[in-house]
Amino acid sequence: MLDVYHLSHLLTGCAREVCVFLFVLLCKIPYAITAIAAVITWVSAVSYLKNNWDLLKKSWSLPCK
């Protein structure tokens, strides 16, 4: 069974570099997707709190200043 290490050594020069670059890029995509999802979730939560803070204070019965 060929893995990327052996496959990249079947290629030479620029083709080898492109193969290794694509493999590294594909390995990092899940981390990038996770980071993007975390940022979107955080921005959504902050936006929700900013837009609904008065309603949340009333529903939680927090003392108003």
Short description:
Helix content is 85%, strand content 0%. It is mainly alpha-helical.
Itemize the secondary structure elements and their pairings.
Layout: H1 4-10, H2 13-60
DSSP strand tally: 0
Tally of DSSP helical segments:
2
Classify the helix fraction into a percent range. over 70%
> Judging from the principal axes of the Cα atoms, what is the shape?
rod-shaped
Strand content: under 5%
Largest sheet: none
Q: How many individual domains?
A: 1
What pattern of helices and strands is seen along the backbone? HH
Distance between the termini: 68 Å
Low-confidence stretches: none
Query: Mean pLDDT, rounded to whole units?
Result: 80
**Which class of secondary structure composition applies to the elements?**
mainly alpha
Q: If you compute it from the alpha carbons, what radius of gyration comes out, rounded to the nearest whole angstrom?
A: 24 Å
In words, what does this structure look like?
- The protein is mainly alpha-helical.
- The chain has one domain (4-58).
- Helices cover 85% and strands 0% of the residues.
- It has two helices and no strands.
- The model has no long low-confidence stretch (mean pLDDT 80).
